[in-house]
């Protein structure tokens, strides 16, 4: 934990948005730690490379400094119609690079329509709309890392 905290401090101190550290101990023993700044927090995911098919350990979040701890008035997680990530992974707004996005702001969607894809462990998971409505906000960028429960979109 101290190692990850020191990496988070390094990330903040140098005003970086992303940091990856790879350690190779021997042929079958490697560790990769990736840190990426997201809205008011630093996401940390550490997964040993020796077991590629095993589930990754739960991601730990290191809170931001106390000055940023106050929740903004329009916290995305509290908005009605919020669609959250069902898993940890990388969110993509289109099926492939350069393709049209699945949805855009103001677009009408039906329950079950694909809103985006979250890639987790080399698997592309389509995220369906939980309701019929209009896409009001898209809260992530294409290719952004997301955590379980992270707000992705608002469909009202």
Characterise the protein shown here.
Mean pLDDT is 75; it is low at 39-43 and 49-73. The protein folds into two domains: 2-65, no CATH class; 76-155, OB fold (Dihydrolipoamide Acetyltransferase, E2P) (Beta Barrel). It has one helix at 2-13, and strands at residues 18-26, 29-38, 41-48, 60-63, 82-84, 89-92, 108-109, 114-120, 123-128, 133-138, 144-146, 151-155. The longest helix has 12 residues, at 2-13. 18% of the residues are buried. The protein has a four-stranded antiparallel beta sheet with strand order 1-2-3-4, covered by helices on one side. The chain has a four-stranded antiparallel beta sheet with strand order 5-12-10-7, with no helix packed on it. With 156 residues, the protein is mainly beta. The protein is built from one helix and twelve strands, in the order H-E-E-E-E-E-E-E-E-E-E-E-E. A hairpin with a 2-residue loop joins strand 8 and strand 9. The radius of gyration is 17 Å and the shape is elongated.
């Amino acid at each position: 934990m101290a190692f990850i905290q020191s990496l988070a401090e390094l990330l903040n101190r140098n005003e970086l948005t992303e940091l990856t550290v790879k350690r190779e101990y021997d042929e079958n023993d490697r560790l990769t730690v990736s840190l990426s700044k997201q809205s008011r927090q630093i996401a940390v995911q550490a997964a040993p490379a020796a077991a590629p098919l095993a589930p990754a350990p739960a991601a730990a979040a290191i809170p931001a400094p106390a000055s940023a701890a106050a929740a903004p008035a329009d916290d995305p997680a509290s908005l009605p119609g919020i669609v959250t990530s069902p898993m940890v992974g990388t969110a993509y707004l289109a099926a492939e690079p350069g393709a049209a996005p699945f949805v855009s702001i103001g677009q009408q969607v039906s329950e079950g329509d694909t809103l985006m894809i979250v890639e987790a462990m080399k698997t592309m998971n389509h995220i369906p709309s939980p309701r019929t409505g209009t896409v009001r906000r898209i809260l992530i960028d294409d290719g952004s890392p997301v955590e379980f429960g992270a707000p992705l979109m608002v469909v009202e």
